[in-house]
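Thread: Modeling a multi-component assembly for a lab meeting

Hi all, long-time lurker, first post. My supervisor asked me to bring a structural picture of a complex we are working on to next week's group meeting, and I have zero experience with this. I have the sequence lines for every component (462 residues in total). Could someone generate the structure of the whole assembly? Inputs are pasted exactly as I received them:
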Amino acid sequence: MLEFDCRNVTTEVIGEENGLHLEEEFQKYNDTVAKIIADLNSRKDKPGQWLQWMNLGYNEETVWLVKEYAAMVQGRFDNVLVLGIGGSALGAMAVCEALLKPYWNILPPEQRNNFPRIFFMDNIDPDQINALLDILDLKKTLVNVITKSGSTAETMSQFMIIQNRLQSELGEEYRKNIVATTDKNTGILRQISNEEGYKTFVIPDDVGGRFSVFSAVGLLPFALVGIEIEDIMQGIKDIDLALKNTDIHHNIAAQNALIHYLLDTRKHKNLSVMMPYSGRLKYVSDWYVQLWAESLGKNKDNDGNPVNIGPTPLKALGATDQHSQIQLYNEGPNDKIINFIRVKEFETKLEIPKIFEFTGIGYLGGKTINELINAEADATKVALIDYQRPNVTITLPEINGYYMGQLLYMLEVQTAIAGELYNINTFNQPGVEQAKNYTYALMGRAGYEESAAVLKEKMTVG
Ligand code: PA5
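Re: Modeling a multi-component assembly
Sure thing. I ran the full set together rather than chain by chain. Output:
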């Protein structure tokens, strides 16, 4: 199981001004948190609650379907190209970066067990898109277009460019190179898929983009590149049991949600830094930033009162960012909580040879890089304590599917509990929709003419 250490947010460790009387708070909030956990679990099967993500770890049918398809296409493609943005890309990127061999795409096929390379197109920089299309042999590329709404401008414009090229290169056969992941019934991509006869996978109802990584949104790309998805699912199931525990003393997601909430509302620490000490976990921070920001940044509470709240998530990477951000975290405003992610056992070991005897570097010889990265994490933690900066540590015994499932699911549950503590709607994103709608208006989508006129006026003024 994942380990969670929150001692460094207590008054005993970081002092009265910045720390929390954690045990007292746990006791004080135990009933509130118990109600939240019980309520989330009792609402999860009800339509319209957007809590279906809590059931994804048990969705054997999707596991079976994506594996069946992946087995069917295995050997036919050199590349998988995922088109998607935000919640339709970040989770799969985080898990692939963590679980595939590092530098996967430049490994020779035999070192990838003949599974394809995988590329994520999650932006619309024309130079990058053109460059990628120059590299990829589209005939040997399986394109997985992922959009829940079926109409996101970034994803659908990429899709149109690529569909067009596939068709001109492959003729009618081009359909075999496309697999769409979208809503069961609604949206333009669903309509196109039905008309064109693409293979499709479903994003279940009541699963929002940022909570969709364990639906076909993530599971299909994982299966296509040979990631053992059963391990991931087992990890989710095991931690889900633990996170159903309504006693906060035994529920690490509830603990971290409450810690963030109290540090924000009582101690003015509304910045949440995610800092894994592992390059392979780098994109977990990107995924977390979206999850935390889109879920908790809201301007109204559940009773309709204006609130404008939301802790701001930030990403950092250990040890790299010790040489960039840590100065600010130690000595700048004391307005952050740092979430360290540690890995106990890396997959490989790397010894530093004893080749130089200079005092300044000789001590490194004979040690391992593994020792060094974990020593750096310890050192950063202690320095933060010296400066009375709250920090928590999530430890993965190792990086594998089982613990990745646990890590991401725990952070999802943590976010849902935090949303309830803030009394806001965790699962909507009107601010994102607003910007999407303005884009549609500017690009001339039918039905958005009035907004386009208003917008153009505002842009001239601005
Ligand atoms: O979490 C969300 O809802 C968003 O980030 C969406 O995932 C993102 O906007 C992409 O939307 P869609 O999947 O509809 O293309």
